[in-house]
Amino acid sequence: LPQLRDQLQLSGFEKNVILMALAPEINHRFGRLYGYLQYQHDESDWDLPTVDLCLRLLCRNDQEWRQARPLIAPSGRLVSLGLVEWASSDDTTLLSRHLRLNADLTAYLLSENPDPSVLSTWTRQGWQPRLTPLMPREEPPLVLPPAVMAQLETVAALAQSGAHPLVLLAGPAGTGKTRAARHLAAGIQLPLVVLDLAAVAPGQTEPLLEELAALPPTLLLVQTAQHWLGRSPGLEPALVQQWLHQRRHQPGLTLFTTNHLHTIPPSWRQGLDGVIEFPWPTAKARQTLWQQAFPPDLPIAPTVRWPQLAKLPLSGGEIRTVAQTAIALAQQSDPPRLSPDHLRRALALHQPHRSWPAASPGSKQAKPQPKERP
Question: Cβ contacts of residue 151 below 8 Å, gap of 6+?
Fold first, then answer.
């Protein structure tokens, strides 16, 4: 069961549902116990757990119940993969339906010498794509040094010329690597698909490579690239080299990201078409990022000083996180209006080690204020 859980990346709830459905196959007492819990007597015709019983036993509160219910619904993986079957008619409610474990899976789980090839059947069927498409959305202009912007324009031109470049984006978290990928995807009019190699479990490489080979023209953003291109890769270098060769012949653009350039050895970097380093934002860039982070229709108090906020040594991602919390706090005030107190509270939540910066002498609010409604 732990091997099945790891191979299919099952949640704790999904694993426990399988265990509940398996229990009556081990001892009839579990079936009688289910009958008593569900029908208040232990001589029920049903010795299988219902969806309702699974949710009641495995969920500690309403929030967990709401999150778990879709996992056990007909569209959930347990049912769609055939790991769990319905043992009652479609005429009942979802909560009243009984769950039975697949006969082959039962035999595998209870076998003294389980056949690993049986597990591989569900592993292949149960492969959930690690390729996450990012939906297009309105993005503010990139705030990056001119040299970096020029490199991105060169990459876009290469992709539009018919080449299929492979480029490494390196820089600390929050410095704009994913936003740059969105910018490039919009510019060359390709869908953006994200693959986080840190989320790929052992044993899932083969189906992943097959899925990558079947991609249509896309901008593929491969995050945490050191898992394949690092000094101790989780994939055989020969397979990595073979896949890189394949990507060069697939329409589209491939971007790799890492937070630290030194994690990618020079031997791999030299085989790519370029390396773009994303620096920590300067004070001037941080001021622009703060101003971009708030919607234009949100009134802002004159005491909010952009140069003062720009003194905080935060990345663009950290600025957006603090800003989102400050916006939520400001919208709860009456009337909605962003104040320094909202920003202080948001900063204390997300960056408790940061002190509120001192105001610059003679600093003024740079953003024009919308008229407040009466």
Answer: 274, 276
Pairing between strand 252-258 and 218-223?
Answer: parallel
- pTM beyond 0.85: the answer is no
CA–CA dist 64, 71 (Å, integer): 11
Query: How far from 158 is each of 21, 189, 200, CA to CA, in Å?
Result: 55, 14, 30
Radius of gyration of the chain (CA): 27
Helix, strand, or coil here: 40?
A: coil
**Is the CB of residue 49 less than 8 Å from the CB of residue 72?**
no
Q: Which of 125-139, 281-295, 354-368 has the highest mean pLDDT?
A: 281-295
With residue 146 as reference, give the H or E element that holds it: helix 146-160
Two tokens, residue 196:
């986080």
Whether 78 and 84 have beta carbons less than 8 Å apart is answered as: yes
In this structure, are residues 8 and 77 in contact, taking their beta carbons and an 8 Å threshold? yes
CA distance 40 to 285: 67
Q: How far apart are the first and last CA of the chain?
A: 63
Residue located via tokens 């001892």? 27
How far, in Å, CA of 337 to CA of 52, rounded? 46
Query: 316: buried, middle or exposed (CB in 10 Å: 19+, 13-18, 0-12)?
Result: buried
Alpha carbon distance 79, 263 (integer Å): 41
DSSP letter at 72 equals G
CA distance 250 to 209: 13
Q: Kindly state the tokens that stand for 340.
A: 């320094």
Handedness of CA 216, 221, 224, 230 (dihedral sign): positive
Both structure tokens of 254: 């491939």
The amino acid present at 175, given as its one-letter code, is T
> Which helix or strand (DSSP H or E) is residue 218 part of?
strand 218-223
Whole-number percent of the chain with pLDDT over 70: 87
Among 170, 163, 182, 164, smallest CA distance to 230 is for: 170
Cβ 131 vs Cβ 214: under 8 Å: no
Question: Please, are residues 19 and 47 in contact by the beta-carbon 8 Å criterion?
Answer: no
The predicted-structure confidence for 201-246, as pLDDT tens digits, reads as follows 666 787 788 889 888 899 999 999 999 999 888 788 999 999 999 9
